[in-house]
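Quick note —
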Amino acid sequence: MTALLAEWTKFRTVRGWVVGMIVAALMVIGVGLLGHSKCGGVVVNGTTISDSGCSSPLGPGGEAVTDSFYFVRQPLGETGTITAQVTSMTGTAEPWSKAGIIVKASLTQGSAYAAMMVTGGHGVRMQWDFTQDLPGLAGTVSAASPRWLRLARSGQTLTGYDSADGTHWTRVGTVTLAGLPATAQAGLFAANPGTSAAASQSLTGGSSRGGITQSTATFDDVALAGDASGSWTGTDLNGPTPGDGYHQSGARFTLTGTGDIAPAVTDGTGVASAAQALIGTFAGLIAVIVVGASFITAEYRRGLIDVTLTAIPDRGRVLAAKAAVLGALTFTAGLPAAYVALLLGEWRLRSGGVFIAPVPVLTEVRLLAGTAALLALAAVLALAVGALTRRGAIAVTTVIVLIVVPYFFASPLAVLPASVGNWLLRVTPAAAFAIQQPYPKYSQVLAAYTPQNGYYPLAPWLGLAVLAAWTAVALALAGRST
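Predicted structure written out below.
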């Protein structure tokens, strides 16, 4: 306790360190306000975003989603079954092109659904509510290898089945769709997200997609049984799209559609990431590194370290006290700074017409606490390197090279091959920026899951743990040095 009190007293009585911490907090907030984005006429997973502003429907869980496909439907009550045989599908160069049967709460984009589908490269899948996915039969559909699909509804519960011969059925999954109305829409669909089209990534993370990619699927033996009524109606949830449509001949349907039914991802195509509001972390990081290094090197430079070690002869204890005080103060300054930066940064982006995909409350807490922890660990790493080198300039340069340089080479500048950049973001302290990844990677969505677009090779807390490990090793070495 004596050592902690002594280090706290030192810190608060040195104006430069206090001012440096305040400057770090202000930089986290201020730099995030400098950037300004405006939405353009781009296409996100088949959905055109207009010049007047970005938008995205929200799924049942509150996540941003893409919900655009061609739908041939009838009303279905609380009990019923839809069955169909899929004999062919084009557009299979896109692995997540899809066609199948679906029960959807309504025609409103983002409404709850469950679907059984064939895909271009992932066999039969059961998907529901955009983020959920289960595998069924493997292989690509063809006339020689058709797939039978079935969805059975009982109230809010839907069960999906598949079959290779129409006789022997296998249950793929059973799901409950909360709030599914008494009368839902059931039928056939076709979609193609078009990620096989050309996509060019710019240095700023922007991209543009090529022309529309469509899938055409043929369904035989289509049957809707149970509490069903009405006639088949074709609806293009993309809005009018040239080529989309269907043809019916008895129980045979041919559908052509584009778009996707999936989570929307922040791959540089118009949907912004909440982490963009925290870009000021880099400026604040440099400031806390300078403060952290000088917290120990100033004593060596002025010859005061001997006085400190005379009062507390245990070098490890002194270093631990410095680390505890510095880490706690940096975290305390960083947390409110990250909160204000997130609020003001998101406001700034929205004022430019940019849609920011929402995140759950716990994810937002992780973004804020993780950013503060990243700053705190970086400051303590600078302290440890300063204790080892005893030179402020060397310590600051070393830590910046370890944390900031790998990130910029692997992400905004993208001057390194992806494999090298991902390796750096796994093994260097720059891995800690993964804590600012706000959205998960979805296996059922092909996208540019790169650091430029806010996705990292390590899980968020694991990335932060890499920085923590570097800091712990540096502190251990510094504690043993003489």
